[in-house]
Amino acid sequence: MLTSPALLFCDEPTTGLDSYSAQKLVHMMNLMAGQGKTVLCTIHQPSSEIFDMFSQLMLVADGRIVFFGDTKSALHFFSRLGYDCPPANNPADFFIRLLALTPGAEEDSRRLVRQICNEFAVTETAKDVDLYLHHTHLASDEVSFLSLLPVSCAPKSLL
């Protein structure tokens, strides 16, 4: 923060914080994004309030992108596939339960994840992500970690 970096990558910045502090931290990240900084972060099991503070969401399971896009479109995408988030339920918890490996039913869980990933893979968003990654790869000798960051989560004020 002292050097005012253009890119701020935060790995689970809210872990260990109480809900008030976590919300304040995400609010501050939104303010930084509003000032032109690129703020990317991973959030593990966010509260519904924290989840609502993000505009872009990337869900990854079994090494594949399950969904990428805005948070409202995620609910619509899963609903279109027949997986509706119950009313008054935290969407993050819903996605985790749906995409996690279920003990004793691991193969069924993997099959479900493959099915959902395959559905996402034919969307325009998935094609755009692939195109971006392809051009990034062509523009450099190797695909660096940073080249993958633009397809990660970003606070609402970023986009």
TrEMBL record:
<dbReference type="InterPro" id="IPR027417">
    <property type="entry name" value="P-loop_NTPase"/>
</dbReference>
<protein>
    <recommendedName>
        <fullName>ABC transporter family G domain-containing protein</fullName>
    </recommendedName>
</protein>
<keyword id="KW-0812">Transmembrane</keyword>
<dbReference type="InterPro" id="IPR043926">
    <property type="entry name" value="ABCG_dom"/>
</dbReference>
<feature type="domain" description="ABC transporter family G">
    <location>
        <begin position="44"/>
        <end position="100"/>
    </location>
</feature>
<keyword id="KW-0813">Transport</keyword>
<dbReference type="Pfam" id="PF19055">
    <property type="entry name" value="ABC2_membrane_7"/>
</dbReference>
<keyword id="KW-0472">Membrane</keyword>
<keyword id="KW-1133">Transmembrane helix</keyword>
<dbReference type="InterPro" id="IPR050352">
    <property type="entry name" value="ABCG_transporters"/>
</dbReference>
